[in-house]
Amino acid sequence: MQTQPFSNDAQSASWAGGSIERLENGHSAGLAQPESRAVRRALGLGWLSVGIGAAEIVAPFAVAKLAGARLRPRTIAALRLLGVRELASGLGILSQTRLAAWLWTRVAGDAIDLALLAQTLRNPRSSRKRTVSAIASVLGLTALDVRSAVECSRRERGLLEPEGVHVLSAITVNRPRDEVYRFWRDLQRLPQFMAHLESVTVHDGLSTWRAKGPAGIPFEWDAEIVDDQPNETLAWRSCAGSDVPNQGSVRFLDAPGGRGTEVRVELRYDPPTGALGKAIATMFGAEPGQAIAGDLRRFKQMLETGEVLHSDASIHRGMHPARPSRKAVPSRRGNEEKSRTKHSDEGKGRQVTT
Fold first, then answer.
1. Own/partner pairs for 131-138, CB < 8 Å, 24+ apart?
2. CA 221 to each of CA 201, 208, 239, 303: distance values in angstroms, whole numbers, following the listed order
3. Is 115 left (phi over 0), alpha (psi -120 to 50) or beta?
4. What is the pTM of this model?
5. How many CA atoms lie within 13 A of 221 on its CB side?
6. Mean pLDDT over residues 62-78, rounded?
7. CATH (one of 3.40.50.1110, 3.40.1190.20, 3.30.530.20, 3.40.1410.10) for 9-36+164-305
8. pLDDT digits (tens, 9 = 90+) for 210-242
9. Is the pLDDT of residue 75 over 60?
């Protein structure tokens, strides 16, 4: 069950309305999207490049003054060229095509910027205080660029594993929105349709989630509600120090055409390394989105029919006849004998009546 740090309640609820692909039957297959901190960091640097590049092209005088450089035509022309370079690097990173290569381009650009700032610092007519401050800022960005470039290079070569899982799924339940919300809000009922959960216990404003692990070994974590808007949104996150950092949200919307309630679930979690990480991977299977989609199907069945329907394959293990067993259904011969006995009794009854 994200990968991004859980800094505050508003941030935890801000992504509650993630996009969901809606299918004709009202249910979308779970979409598992492995995410990497390195990728998110790189995209942030991409947007930073776009912003810096735009500033250097549109307002070179302000940038030159901020860096402590002399306002000369040659300086302004150089800044505009640097802006074009920054803009190209940023757009290249945001395209996520050859991400590592574009990040190394940023590192090279940082080296050029540092060389130009060092030259500016040697000029007695420059503002040394502003130039030193600009050099310190560029050095910090250079360190971040190098780290991101190295991580993305390793990731593209298969040396760095994705660090988190992001799952989106949705289903339409033919029940009023308030009823659907109340059922889900009762957290202790979640194990009735979530296959991987053994129990959810609510205490002191928190909830303890106990999940099934491989070989029958359970593991658990504490969670707290961070956003609760009745009949609309319910969001939670794991507490600090949890072995399974996770956060999730459920949105309840009116389904089109008066077909009940559309339930949208977004789930993020960080599988830890080691034995616990393997246990979580086993719990959710190869495709976490499919596991969540299965939970939603069972949730729909419980609200619409009052029970979870099981397929024949989920009840019987291994090979078995594709017909009812003799214990479940009487044999044809037994039915015929019962029928003859019944007719005989009825005949005897008629004789007595006559």
1. 131/67, 131/68, 131/69, 133/68, 134/66, 134/67, 134/68, 138/110, 138/113, 138/114
2. 11, 6, 8, 27
3. alpha
4. 0.47
5. 23
6. 84
7. 3.30.530.20
8. 887 655 667 788 899 999 999 999 999 888 777
9. yes
